[in-house]
Amino acid sequence: MRAELLSVDDAAALVKDGATVALAANGGGMLEPTELIGAIERRFLATSSPRALHVVHALGAGDRASRGLNGFAHEGMVRRVTGGHWTWSPAMMRLAAEEKIEAYTMPAGVITHLLRESGARRPGLVTRTGLHTFADPRLKGCRANASARDDVVELLELDGTEYLRYRPFQVDVAIIRGTEVDERGNIGADAEPATLDALECAQAARGSGGIVIVQVKRRTTAPLDPRRVFIPAALVDYVVVVPEQRQTYLTEEDHTLFDPAPPAPEGVPAGFTDPIRAVVARRAAMEVREGDVLNLGFGMSADVGAVLREEGRLHEVTLAVEQGLYDGAPELGDLFGMSVGPSARVSSAVQFDSFAAGLIDVTCLGMAQADRHGNVNVSAFGGKVMGPGGFVDISQYARTSVFCGAFRAKGLQIELLDGGARVVREGQVAKFVADVDDVTFSGRLAAEEGRRALYVTERCVFELTPDGLALIEVAPGLDLERDILAHLPWRPIMRDVRPMPAAAFAPIDPILLEQQS
C-alpha cells in the first residue's frame, strides 16, 4: 500500500500549528471523519496544539452540539474559518460573533470548485456565482465579521461581462472519509450516502504539497473494482481504519441510503400539523410542473416534496440536491441532503457544475428576510453568521426560484377557514424589510437576467419585477391593509392582485393537530 496505515491519534498528530485544513462532510454525519476530528480535538485540549488553524468546509458539518465542525470550535485552536454553512456548529458561530476568529463565508459550490482549482494550481476560481451578493467585493467580499480583513475575492470584467475571482487556497491537510481501502490504497465509498467534495479536498492538498488523511471503516484484501474507487491511491498519504465508523449519526449502515429502491409510495398524506407550513408548501408546489428538475432546500421549503408525494406527482419530477444525489425519497431534519433509494450519485463539484449549466427548472428555498428589491437573506442575521450553503449556487442559476417562509416570525398563528385564512396571533418579527441584512439572492441580478422569482407566505405571494416586488396574491379572508400592507416598510407594486388558490388552505388532519397539542 502506498499510503501509510496509522492510528487515529498518530494521524491527528500530523496536523501542525497554523495549518489550513480542508474538511469534507455534511450535516447528520454524512461522510464525516468523526473519530479523526475527535482525536485532533483531544490533542488540542491536552496539549494546546494544533493551534491557529484555518478550516475550510463547503457544506455544514456537525450535530449542533459537539460533533463535526464543533470539534474545532475552541478558542485558540482555530484562527480562521472559510465556511459555506455554519449552522450545524453553534460553537463556531459564537466564536465568529465574539470576533475570536476570522470568519469568511462563501457559496458552497464556490468553495468546492475553488478547492479543485487550487489543487490544479490555477489562479483561483473565475465565476459569476455570487455577483451582487455578500460575496461581491462591492458588498462584503465574503467577510462575515470585523476580524476578517483579507481580500479573498475580486471583481473582473472579461469581454464586457462581470465575473468574480476567488483567490486559491493553500491546503496543508485534507481530512476526508470513505468506506473501505484496498491493498493499493484506493478508497471506496460503497456505504456512503454521498461523496460530496472529498476528491476536491484531496486534490487541493496534493496540489499544495500538503497531505491527505482518509478515515475508513474497513480494509479489504481484494482490489476494489476501479468503478468503485472515488479517491485513487495516488492521492492518499495516510489511512486510519475505524471499525466502529458509522454511516451517519443515526445509522450504522443503512442500505436504503445507497442502494437502488423501488419508488416511494405516492398518495401518502403529507402529515402537516402546522397550518403555516401547509399553506406555504402547497402554494409553492403549484409552481412545479411535470418534467421539471426540482431542487428543494432545508426547512419549510423541503415540505414541497411531501406535498408532491401526497398529490401523486413526485414521480413526475427529477429531484437534484447539492450533495450530488438525484431522486429517491429525500430525508428531512438532521439527515437532510440524503435520500432513500437515490437514482444517481455524483460529486458535489459535478452537481454544482450542472446547476451552473442551467439544470434546475424550479428550486424551492427558505427565506429568512426579503426586501423591496427582491433580495433574499439566509446567510447572516441577528448578529449570527449562518452561511448560505448551496443557496447562492442554486438560486442564481435556477429558472424559477420559489422562496418559502412565514410573513412574520416569532409567535405567528393562523387558522384555516374554508379556502382562506385568519390571523389568530401576529408574529413579532418582520421578515419583509426595507433592506436585508445580507444579500444572499440578488433581485437586481435575477431581474436583469430574466429569471423568475416568487416569494410565498401563508397570507400572500410576491413576484419579482424589474421595478421591485409586486404583490400578486392575497389569502382569502384577510384584509389587505391590516394584514399585509400595514406590516411592510414600503408600498409594493400592485397591478393585478388576485386571491391565493383555495386549495392551499385545505384543512389539515385534525387527528395530527390533536396529537401535536
UniProtKB/TrEMBL annotation:
Q: Does the keyword Transferase apply?
A: yes
The UniProt entry, under Pfam families, shows:
CoA_trans
Q: Please report the organism this UniProt entry assigns to the protein.
A: Occultella gossypii
Keyword presence, Transferase: yes
Superkingdom as given in the UniProt entry: Bacteria
Give any GO molecular function from the UniProt entry: transferase activity
* Name of this chain's protein: Acyl CoA:acetate/3-ketoacid CoA transferase
Per the similarity annotation, which family is this?
A: Belongs to the 3-oxoacid CoA-transferase family.
Please name the Gene3D superfamilies in this protein's record.
Glutaconate Coenzyme A-transferase
**This protein's UniProt keywords:** Transferase
